[in-house]
Each structure stands twice: as C-alpha cells, then as structure tokens.
Amino acid sequence: MDADGYVTWIPVRREEEADFSGLAAALETPVHADFTAYFGRYWSDPIPATGLCGRVELLQLWNPDDEERLIANQLGHVLQARRAKRPLTLFFACGDDPDQLYSIDNATGEVLREDLPKRSARQIAPSLAQFLGGLRAEPGS
User: Which residue among 44, 68, 86, 125 is least crowded, i.e. fewest CB within 10 A of its CB?
Assistant: First the structure.
C-alpha cells in the first residue's frame, strides 16, 4: 500500500493461456487469433485509455468466472449480429456510450466501432495492434 492508501496492482500473466475452442465450436468457425491473444495471456482489471476514437475501456479478464461470462456475452453478441445480417465480430472494448462497442471483425481482423442501436459498424483500424498502438493509458490506470 502506498502513502495515499492505494494498492498497486498490475496485470498478472496467466499460467495457461485461455482456451477459446468452445467458443469456436459454438460459432462453427475459428476465433480470430488477435482475439485469442488479446484475452488469452493476462488476468487484469479493465484498462481505461484514450485515442483518436475518444475514450475507451479495454475489457480484460479478471478470473476464470469472468472468462465464462465473456464467452456467454460474445455468443449473445454474435447471435444478435447474425439476426441483423451483420458480419461476425467479437468485442474487446467499449466507449463512453454504453451502446458503443469496439470489435474485431472475425474474418478480416479489422477493428470496428459498432453502434448497437443503429446496428451500424465502421472500420477504425486495419488491425487490433494498430488500434492499440494509437491509444494511451489514462492517468492513474
């Protein structure tokens, strides 16, 4: 604990990488490697950041129960997208607006900003690496 009473915490490397084979089986398609790499290596609290797209909260997995919730939420997201005849996307972050998600297009790896009520999406980066490279962590995170 520091002098202000805060506990310093950093992401923790997982002993075993996450296994998204169940998600892939449910989707009947492989899960994009960027999604697996992003969520598969560390346990962490969400990470607030800013970039050209504004403020985002990079979702992270806190523990195994959180991993199960993520998979269930991804399946729900994909089912809604299929009903709306949108491409298969897997979300990894949210914006200031709770109806705004940042997702990976599972076929291309492009990062899309999805506006859920409007059922619209637009490309904002050609890859997850480029999207993340354009962000800076917010102070205190």
Answer: 68
